[in-house]
Write a structure and sequence with these properties.
- This protein has about 150 residues and is of the alpha/beta class.
- About 30% of the residues lie in helices and about 30% in strands.
- The protein has two domains: about 1-50; about 60-150, no CATH class.
- It contains five helices and seven strands.
- The strands form three sheets. It has a three-stranded mixed β-sheet. Strands 1-2 form a two-stranded parallel sheet.
- A hairpin with a 4-residue loop joins strand 5 (about 125) and strand 6.
């Protein structure tokens, strides 16, 4: 089973329309900044078996979470709910700002997204999925990590 979660009404309308005929995929409207609300959502609770290993995918979402909303705490709440053997996939925008190829890629991604309807906001450069947490304000390249939550 797969459950997509988003709080944007337009995304919800399109998501529900696209997934209407799929008995294994669901969509619910919720705010990822409220892990308890997401995890207790009737669609999530009804579709996901929290007794079997899961994959939590936070793809291109956490850079929209402001520092004051405590993104690391949000991820801790989600990973604490995962059963043993689960995986976390996390992608977020980050720039090394060092003139490297990754920095050039980051500038290109920023240029493209700045003008799109998705927009971009600064965020902390952190990779919680592998236990790293930094405090710099960054926003430019894509960092992806796949890791099993610690202690699992």
């Amino acid at each position: 089973m797969t459950v997509y979660v988003d709080n944007d009404p337009t995304v919800a309308a399109h998501g529900r329309a696209l997934l209407a005929g799929d008995p294994h995929t669901y969509f619910t409207v919720a705010d990822l900044r409220s892990p308890s609300a997401v995890l207790n959502d009737h669609i999530v609770a009804g579709a996901i078996d929290f007794h079997r290993p899961l994959a939590l995918i936070q793809a291109g979402t956490l850079h929209h979470v402001e520092d004051q909303d405590q993104p690391a705490e949000i991820m801790r709440a989600y990973t604490a709910a995962l059963p043993p053997g689960s995986y976390v996939v996390l992608t977020s925008f980050h720039s090394p700002a060092d003139g490297s190829a990754a920095a050039v890629l980051a500038e290109e991604i920023e240029r493209r997204f700045r003008g799109s309807s998705m927009g971009m906001t600064p965020h902390p450069a952190w990779l919680f999925a592998v236990g790293l947490c930094g405090g710099s304000r960054a926003r430019r390249t894509v960092s992806t990590r796949l890791a099993q939550p610690r202690g699992r």
